[in-house]
Design the sequence.
């Protein structure tokens, strides 16, 4: 089983601050996804990164896939209270034909 | 289009009782997944189906858990007998791209076993 470690586990910041959360593994993934989960709801896909070194931007969110495809980061610029939620990364396990989820980073953005 | 529909949203039951959770996937999606989410263990894959056939049930905790998918629009996850340690949020997800494509999750069923 390929494991994904996310850090930090919890993050509480003020509105307007920048932040970065990380997703790391000792295994290589064919692709990696980031999901956001709000309280009382299921996770919703934000982005999929496929190529080593790839950078994708989604408004104030910037996603990067490591060159070796073992790690990824999510950077949020000028965080807003609406960004509050649980951020999960999921790596594609090519051997098993399924994705493995990390434990998530719980982000709280205070107004 | 309707998303993945799960029922019940909340269930409180006593230890030893049978629990049945239900899921209707998005029409046209031929993969269906059951996940369990807890604070301690995060989001765990229990089982997934492709074209109504169970493909990988290695995440099912023990024989008390069973899942069926009698047709393309309905699946159940059953726990019998239930135990307090089964308390969790159970999510159903569907996909058209297999286990490594985008997963569309339902809103979850929060189970509390007393």
Sequence:
């Amino acid at each position: 089983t390929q494991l994904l470690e996310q850090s930090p586990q919890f993050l509480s910041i003020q509105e307007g601050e920048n932040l970065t959360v990380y997703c790391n593994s000792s295994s290589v993934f064919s692709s990696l996804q980031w999901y956001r989960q709000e309280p009382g709801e299921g996770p919703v896909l934000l982005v999929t990164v496929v190529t080593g070194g790839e950078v994708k931007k989604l408004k104030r969110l910037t996603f990067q896939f490591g060159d070796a495809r073992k790690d990824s980061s999510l950077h949020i610029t000028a965080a807003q209270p609406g960004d509050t939620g649980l951020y999960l990364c999921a790596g594609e396990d090519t051997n098993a034909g399924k994705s493995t989820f990390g434990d998530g980073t719980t982000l709280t953005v205070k107004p | 289009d309707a998303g993945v529909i799960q029922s019940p949203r909340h269930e409180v039951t006593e230890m030893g009782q049978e629990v049945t959770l239900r899921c209707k996937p998005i029409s046209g999606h031929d993969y269906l997944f059951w996940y369990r989410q807890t604070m301690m263990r995060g989001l765990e894959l229990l089982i997934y189906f492709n074209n109504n056939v169970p493909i990988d049930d290695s995440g099912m905790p023990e024989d008390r858990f069973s899942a069926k998918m009698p047709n393309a629009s309905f699946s159940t996850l059953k726990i019998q007998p239930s135990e307090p340690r089964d308390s969790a949020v159970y999510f159903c997800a569907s996909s058209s791209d297999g286990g490594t494509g985008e997963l569309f999750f339902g809103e979850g069923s929060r189970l509390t076993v007393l």
